[in-house]
Write a structure and sequence with these properties.
This protein is α+β, with helices and mostly antiparallel strands and 181 residues long. Helices cover 36% and strands 15% of the residues. It has a single domain, classed as 2-Layer Sandwich (Ribosomal Protein S8, Chain: A, domain 1). Strands 1-2-5-6-4-3 form a 6-stranded mixed beta sheet, sandwiched between helices. About 6% of the residues have low confidence.
Length: 181
């Protein structure tokens, strides 16, 4: 061994000398990774459990007026029926809108609350909330539609709402009338 060289360098030199004539083994083996397991839709399962729990435990949120099929419309008690009629006919101009596509129930509820608060602060009276028709949902059912109308009926600032006209989203949206500042 070399006295000036550190012992680690000597060990490497000895190893290289010992394996100098070694050759790699030729093989035709290929290592294949097994396919990953299929994804488990855990968020969807949590959402469905939460929806079931909410529907069983929550009191009836609102009294919906179903006219012309399953079109949901609501009017705060004490308000003139003309308000809802004018809202349905498009006499109120929609000034702002929010789109809830791709959100889960918690995100959607949070966005609706923020959106309504912002509109109230700015004095916006008529808004549209696009909840979707459920075409991308399990069993193609609109999960957010029922939740949104329930949330709206609980909010003090909401005077009325109805399904949007076909040009404004139809069954995939609601038009909401908010109280004045």
């Amino acid at each position: 061994m070399n006295q000036g060289a550190p012992p680690e360098d000597d060990a490497r030199a000895l190893f290289r000398a010992a394996v100098a004539d070694a050759r790699p083994i030729a093989t035709d083996r290929i290592h294949h990774e097994p396919p990953p397991p299929p994804p488990i839709p855990r968020q969807r399962e949590r959402d469905e459990r939460a929806a079931l729990t909410e529907s069983l435990a929550a009191p009836d949120l609102l009294d919906l007026h179903l006219e012309g099929g399953d079109e949901a419309a609501w009017l705060r008690p004490g308000m003139s029926p003309n308000v809802l009629r004018d809202l349905r006919r498009g006499r109120w101009v929609v000034k702002e809108h929010v789109d809830l596509h791709g959100m889960n129930r918690d995100e959607a509820r949070h966005h609706v609350a923020l959106f309504l608060a912002e509109c109230l602060q700015r004095g916006v009276r008529c808004v549209r909330i696009v909840h979707g028709k459920g075409l991308g949902s399990p069993r193609r059912e609109p999960v957010l539609k029922g939740l949104v109308v329930g949330w709206l009926a609980q909010r003090q600032e909401v005077l009325a709402f109805c399904q949007a006209r076909p040009a404004d989203g139809g069954a995939g949206a609601v038009v909401v009338l908010l109280q004045a500042r």
